[in-house]
Specification:
Helices cover 37% and strands 23% of the residues. It is α/β, with parallel strands linked by helices. The chain folds into two domains: 173 residues, Rossmann fold, CATH 3.40.50.1950; 222 residues, CoaB-like (Rossmann fold). Strand 7 and strand 8 form a beta hairpin. Helix 5 crosses helix 8 and helix 10 crosses helix 14. It is elongated. Bound molecules: cytidine-5'-triphosphate (CTP). Cytidine-5'-triphosphate (CTP) binds next to helix 12 and strand 17.
């Protein structure tokens, strides 16, 4: 699948911290996301981890200071820097930050950093006291003012045994930031996209609730696809253990009423809303204050309707014309296209994603989906069986087109 990292050259600088082991994971994740990763280790980093580790995960040579004096040495740092779309230094020690802040170019990595014209992302890692030191803080300020993007460090357990601010940001989060940085000029740059995901839960009593089988996978994939096009993304989700796509603002909700409030709030200024959430249509008319006991007669639980969120959004849109584009999903187990067409019209959507949730390889919980897109202008597009990430990319491509038309 194409990602903002596909075919991009990332120069990864690794400096001497115990967090070096995480750098190998980061290099691997960058490679898996489609990037070509060149690694430069400082002498201190090479004490913690070997170039071979990086070569094994990137499939490319990893460089150390000795290479500076080799046959290609006189241009190596220039070439590595010039070819890079992004220079990432993770972990970045206090020593390396000081070198970068003052333009000292006394090892291969620092030389490449001075020669590089691409954006610079730094993930500091060090002892808490070293991080707080005025010299380190001043160096970070200089680098920030110069345009470097500094991610972390985080608070947590450090090599000293203390819990302080100094831990390198986790590779998965760094990957999210890198992905976002490379997507910053995408077709949705400056656009606000709200995505709802997952299922809601309607409580019956303090321990029980009515839920549904939605996993949130399709919604989370939509959020990632929107981020990959440069959008600012708000992901409103029902209870889910899925990791938040890096760069998205996550709003956790539980009930349909909470989702209604969150969607109305965030879509009031959004350019696009994609309602992938499986919102409960019914809730218990009365939530029991205490656990319903099993003794006596089995309880009859009266249900009442929840509010239709998309219809509420359509009503608000009449007043303030936001969101410019609204996309819904139709989860159906029969009469897929007819039911989806009805929802497209009654919910005032630009298009609807019709989803046969009775198929084993599509819909809830699985990683694949087979959907048809039904547009307000009568067009229909049937997509083949695809991964949920690919479905998300196809949906976002339509959103980009519609936003383009809305702006004409
Ligand atoms: N939806 C909504 N508010 C609700 C229920 C659903 O906004 N209270 C949205 C869903 O997020 C989805 C679309 O409406 O984008 C269609 O949801 P679906 O469950 O397929 O249909 P319903 O409108 O709930 O109708 P039915 O259950 O009768 O099929």
């Amino acid at each position: 699948m194409v990602t903002p990292l596909s075919g991009k050259r990332i120069l990864l600088g690794v400096t001497g911290s115990i967090a070096c082991y995480k750098a190998a994971d980061l290099a691997s994740k960058l490679r898996q996301a489609g990037a070509e990763v060149d690694v430069i280790l400082t002498a201190a980093a090479a004490q913690f981890i070997t170039p071979l580790t990086f070569q094994s995960v990137t499939g490319r040579r990893a460089y150390v200071d000795a290479d500076l004096w080799g046959s290609e040495g006189h241009v190596l740092h220039i070439n590595l820097a010039k070819e890079a779309d992004l220079l990432v230094i993770a972990p970045a020690t206090a020593n390396t930050l000081a070198k970068l802040a003052h333009g000292l170019a006394e090892n291969l990595l620092a030389l490449a950093a001075v020669a590089a014209e691409c954006p610079l992302l730094l993930a500091p890692a060090m002892d808490g006291g070293m991080y707080q030191h005025p010299a380190t803080q001043a160096n970070l300020e200089i680098l920030r003012d110069r345009g470097a993007i500094i991610i972390g460090p985080e608070s947590g357990h450090l090599a000293s045994g203390l819990r302080q601010v100094g831990r390198m940001t986790e590779p998965a989060d760094l990957l999210g930031h890198i992905r976002r940085l490379l997507a910053r000029r995408g077709p949705l740059a400056g656009k606000r996209v709200v995505v709802s995901a997952g299922g809601t839960q309607e409580p019956l009593d303090p321990v029980r609730f009515i839920a549904n089988r939605s996993s949130g996978k399709q919604g989370f994939a939509l959020a990632q696809a929107a981020l990959d096009l440069g959008a600012e993304v708000t992901l409103i989700c029902g209870p889910s253990a899925l990791p938040t796509p890096g760069g998205a603002t996550r709003v956790d909700v539980r009930t349909a009423a909470e989702m209604l409030a969150a969607v109305l709030e965030h879509s009031a200024e959004a350019d696009a809303l994609i309602m992938a959430a499986a919102v409960a249509d019914f809730r218990s008319a009365q939530t029991a204050e205490h656990k319903i006991k099993k003794g006596g007669e089995a309880p009859v639980i009266a249900l009442t309707h929840t509010e239709d969120i998309l219809k509420a959004v359509a009503a608000v849109k009449k007043e303030n014309s936001h969101p410019a584009v609204t996309v819904g999903f139709a989860a159906e187990s029969q009469d897929l296209l007819a039911n989806a067409a009805k929802k497209l019209a009654t919910k005032g959507l630009d298009f609807i994603v019709a989803n046969d949730v009775s198929a084993a390889d599509a819909g809830f919980e699985v990683d694949t989906n087979r959907v048809s897109l039904l547009f307000a202008d009568g067009r229909r597009e049937d997509l083949p069986l695809l991964g949920k990430g690919e479905v998300a990319v196809a949906i976002l491509a339509e959103v980009v087109k519609l936003l383009g038309k809305a702006a004409e």
